[in-house]
């Protein structure tokens, strides 16, 4: 397929246009809402990263957030200015302690760290399927968090990292998400993506056709790791700080919910799920502080947003297991 | 001598996790699903204990058993039965959602601050001391009662009609139904039994970990889940043995590690899990001949 032409398809343009719509409309809102919309964009980038592996391979992985954590911590620690770093975290390896990187460099580093880590872990883990894979990926998540939290030579321990450059504004958030979408789309229309989906649909037939499920899964795992790591870097530059708890079980649940509700099997599902669930979450969060609905002020009790999200996820699984998008890609209505 | 102390404590912890793993394994065997929300049954029981602190003890225990059983039956009816026949990953994610829902309800009602369960606090004291070794009452109780329960459940499963039906359904659901076994009865029976096992485990956990939080059940579920995967998911005895092994190993490793290294306990345990999954996916206590249902 010739380069640009193959990309100008509705399946790619649909998600990108949706993202641009959300991004541009964020300017209409006050600062605190705008910040939440930025967070929605970054969360969706993480979901797209997870989708690249989960959607194409059919293996539900609870461990992709490990790569987001690695990317976030990698970008965060290296972005911190050096003299401050040496004072606050004297235990770090000298190469980390003595140097600081600029914004783009930290994002490149986050991507590389995610990819390398995914390659190492994936080479062992992508052999597994079904429940065994689920448990193994969860174990990966636990180990990653344990190491990042306790190995003083590379991480900040239980403390939050201060002084991270908050370079993720509207432009960086939007551009990052669009970049992730383009990479995800390019992968899924490539021969590797197609081969992986073939092995997902019918493993013996694909094997008979010469497809190595292990190899294709590993490729997807590395791409997913890279995107999740990259998104983690963008995430830390949005928050300005990060702790291990923020990239652990809760984020795993949230991003999985987004993917399930949107539709696990398509890029459109990942984007729709990420944006819609983030926005619903934001609305509920704001409602907990009191919002005006016409003449009334609605104040939801604290903690409602989690309950609603969990219920939505359960209801989606019961009534529309393929998600809001029915796990289909965006397409224009056909002419009859 | 101190190693004997570690051993005794580890056996006590192991038995507790064997109980939880048996409950999880029972649900998996009969219903073919991994219940991520199993630990939340213990959490619900814990909050019940908190709310009934002023009641007489036997009534409290009955209340917990009732609450936990009703909750388990509700979850089965509302969240799991509609998904009968769906892909295993769908039900796995559903139980993940149920777990999160229950935890968020608890957090909303009682916040993340721990609440005291105040049950059998006298059990945390030493029963007897031999030199440097202190064997606490709860450890003896865990080994005694827990062990007794495991024996009782295995008798139930092997010597009673309903037990036979449960094992048959676990082995081959379709054939079992063809032979006239009523699936709904078996499922409900398994649900009730696993809930009661969870309640019993809670009673024995409570003296050692007397403060309940919304996250109370999460780690227990994780360890029990590891236990049934490591032990073997096809046979209930293997699942219980796996739960015991993980609880025992975790406790021993914790005691034996030098103080500075203890923080890496999680990595050690879960690293072992990955190794077992890679090299012996059917479980440590299963024979190689059996096909894995993973």
Question: What is the compact description of this entry?
Answer:
Chain A has 336 residues and is mainly alpha-helical. In chain A, 70% of the residues lie in helices and 2% in strands.
Helix content of chain B: over 70%
Helix and strand run of chain B: HHHHEEEHHHHEHHH
Main sheet overview of chain B: 2 strands, antiparallel
Strand content of chain A: under 5%
The most extensive interface between chains reads: A-B, 41 and 39 residues
Total number of strands of chain A: 2
Helix content of chain A: 55-70%
Instruction: Write down how many β-strands of chain B occur, each being a DSSP E stretch of 2 or more residues.
Output: 4
Draw up the topology in text:
The complex is a heterodimer of chains A (336) and B (294).
Chain A: H1 3-7, H2 10-25, H3 31-57, H4 65-79, H5 82-88, H6 94-98, H7 103-125, H8 130-150, H9 170-189, H10 191-201, H11 203-208, H12 213-239, H13 249-262, H14 267-288, E1 291-293, E2 296-298, H15 304-319
Antiparallel strand pairs in A: 1-2
Helix pairs in contact in A: 2-9, 2-14, 3-9, 3-12, 3-13, 3-14, 4-7, 4-8, 4-12, 7-12, 9-12, 10-12, 13-14, 13-15, 14-15
Chain B: H1 2-31, H2 38-51, H3 57-80, H4 88-110, E1 115-116, E2 126-130, E3 133-136, H5 137-159, H6 161-171, H7 173-178, H8 183-205, E4 211-212, H9 216-231, H10 236-256, H11 265-279
Antiparallel strand pairs in B: 1-4, 2-3
Helix pairs in contact in B: 1-5, 1-6, 1-8, 1-9, 1-10, 2-3, 2-4, 2-8, 2-9, 3-8, 5-6, 5-8, 6-8, 9-10
